[in-house]
Specification:
It is a single chain. With about 170 residues, this protein is α/β, with parallel strands linked by helices. Helix content is about 50%, strand content about 15%. It contains eight helices and four strands, in the order H-H-H-E-H-H-E-E-H-H-H-E. Helix 7 packs antiparallel against helix 8 (about 130-150). It is globular, with a radius of gyration of 15 Å.
Length: about 170
């Protein structure tokens, strides 16, 4: 029953729901927060939002984590010169957030720290506080990254700062 309910939830969630939860004004605020964040550390943030999964993904039981790994690859977050990419992935249908870090970041920041940040962001999503949750998550990620990866030199901005609606 839970599987069927999840499939229906994803299929009945219109694609425009992501745009409603994250309208252009919010996307600009997130973009600005990411740009400011990247001045405080030597990492690259990428923010992706997806309403629901496609039927084939649902039928094979794809989780938000598995989809985040797929998006991490599709967006080439792993392809930064210093292996310092971080993906913040938001799946609205399940109200789940996943954060994936490339190996350069993962070597110094444990997944448990990212997971705790995700759970706080998810709580905000459940309360329909998408903007505050996103900006708080970026600020928390910034503090974590700045502690382990202080800014150094004029690194290239390799990943888009603008959040992506998938």
């Amino acid at each position: 029953m839970e599987r069927a309910a999840r499939i229906l939830r994803h299929l009945l969630l219109p694609q425009w729901c992501a745009s409603r939860a994250f309208p252009p004004s919010v996307l600009r605020r997130i973009e600005q927060a990411i740009a400011a964040s990247e001045k405080r550390h030597a990492a690259e943030l990428c923010f992706a939002i997806e309403g629901g999964l496609a039927l084939p993904a649902l039928l094979r039981g794809q989780t938000a984590r598995q989809r985040a790994l797929e998006v991490f690859s599709l967006l080439r977050v792993w392809d930064t010169a210093c292996n310092n990419g971080v993906l913040i992935y938001v799946q609205l249908a399940d109200r789940q957030v996943e954060i994936l870090a490339d190996r350069g970041i993962a070597a110094r920041v444990g997944q448990d720290e990212w997971d705790a940040l995700c759970r706080r962001f998810e709580q905000g999503c459940r309360q329909r506080r998408f903007v505050e949750g996103a900006l708080d998550a970026i600020e928390e990620a910034t503090a974590l990254l700045a502690r382990h990866f202080p800014p150094g030199g004029e690194g290239a901005d390799e990943l888009p700062n603008r959040p992506l609606l998938l």
